[in-house]
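Worked example 2:
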Amino acid sequence: MIFDERTRRKLDRLSLVATRAGSGAYRGERRSARKGSSVEFADYRDYRPGDDLRRLDWHIYARLDRPFIKLLEDEQDLAVHLLVDASRSMDWGEAESNKYRYALRLAAALGLIGLASGDQLTVVLLKGDRETARYGPARGGHHTLKLLRFLESHPAAGVVDLPQVVRQVARASRRPGLAILISDLYNADGIRLSLRELQRGGHEVRVLHLLSPDELEPTFSGELRLLDCETGATQEVSLDSGLRGLYRRRLHEWRSQLQAECRQRGAGYLPLNTAVAWETVVLLEMRKAGMLR
């Protein structure tokens, strides 16, 4: 899961948007909402195109031949929590359209953006009855390679009780901040209860809802036996054009309900088709939705 240099440079110019989540105790490049804060020197970070050259430390540049930007006391980081559904149902779809592979790509890109911005990053992979893999908290671009290795080392497995696992994650979070849930949301009442738990913990929430192309538009037909990949339950169906039409309507209603639930609770919701390149989602769709800038 290595980003080419061109993509890396594009990601480095982005930052995660949080309108209500508080800034934290560590210093980053994000401006604090507090008034009258000190403007004394606090730290350095790497220069990125578009930065104010008046804040470049020319003495450091002359000594190390690398440009660094000076950070001030009133510039604080955001606590970013990426929650990735790693249940067995996510391991569906071919090649780059595989939901879990796609979710990991998004998590890697968003994690890189957070680290490059000086935010404090935590990534939790959700599988089984409780969280089973956690990375962080980490801060700074030097953690990027470790993050990518972490994401590549954990396959999807198990059945996730999403609200229960999210509750555990929310209660274990020491710092509230921006929580981004990446999931196919195949869980009854999962989104409503999960939003409640995260918001109780003081988090501002974004939901990235992934479905694969064949989940959005089934192409098979005839007499079928459907198998639930998580529970093993089976269902006999006779799939014709009429039933496919009903499926599309129910799917539209379901996603509309999810979006309405998120809107009601003040959470961001973005429905995604894994046939769309993940770069397009990060560089275009999430920016249009106001989740990145």
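The domain at 78-214+267-288 is CATH 3.40.50.410 (Rossmann fold). The chain has two domains: 24-75, 78-214+267-288.
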